[in-house]
Structure formats: structure tokens, C-alpha cells
Amino acid sequence: MQVPLYQAKAEFFRMLGHPVRIRVLELLQNGPRPVRELLAEIDVEPSNLSQQLAVLRRSGIVVSVREGSTVSYALAGGDVADLLRAARRILTELLAGQSELLAELRQGEPRGAHREAAPSP
Description:
Radius of gyration: 22 Å
Helix content: 55-70%
Largest sheet: 3 strands, antiparallel
Number of helices: 5
Structural class: mainly alpha
Distance between the termini: 74 Å
Shape: extended
Strand order of the largest sheet: 1-3-2
Mean pLDDT: 89
């Protein structure tokens, strides 16, 4: 039985749903990186990074290349970089909208309203 497309998409986004995986993908947008460079950029234990890289590799999002004793990782295709750029644009728009709303709320706020009112005598 075939999985519905919406379910496959949900599983894909769940796979992306880890901060270390997202950071790895961001770093790989600029080209292949050896594991030691990824470790220097991401504040995690080597075993945790290895586990997250394995998830990305099994999903087909990244590929690994061994050159001697050095293992490097690269994005399997450019679509992932496009997805990360789209996510950045969406978040930028959302946060800009929130800051505009916050500014509007603050403009309509009476002076001193953010402080607790003094008790009446």
C-alpha cells in the first residue's frame, strides 16, 4: 500500500526537525565539508553529530565521500538549499510581521501602562 503524499511530506519534515540536522544542512549549502569542520561549527558531541549525519544520509539528503581518512559530507542536490532559503524568507516575513504588530501595540499603549498600577489609598 502506497503512503499518501501528505504523509510522506510530514515524514520528510519530521526528518528535518532537529536543530543539528538543520545546522549541518546550512553549513553544507556552501559545498562539501569534512566532519572535523562540521564538529568545529556545531557545538555537539561527535557521537551526536555522527548520529544526525546518519539520519540525513539514510534519507538521501546528504552523501558522504571518503578521501583517505577524511570523511566529507555534501548535499545530495540543490533543492535542499532552496528549501532552507525559502524557510529563511518565511521566518523573516513572520518575524517582521510580529515586530510590526509589537510596535503598533506599543504605540497604542498609555505611558507607564506596562508597569504595575499603584494601589489606591
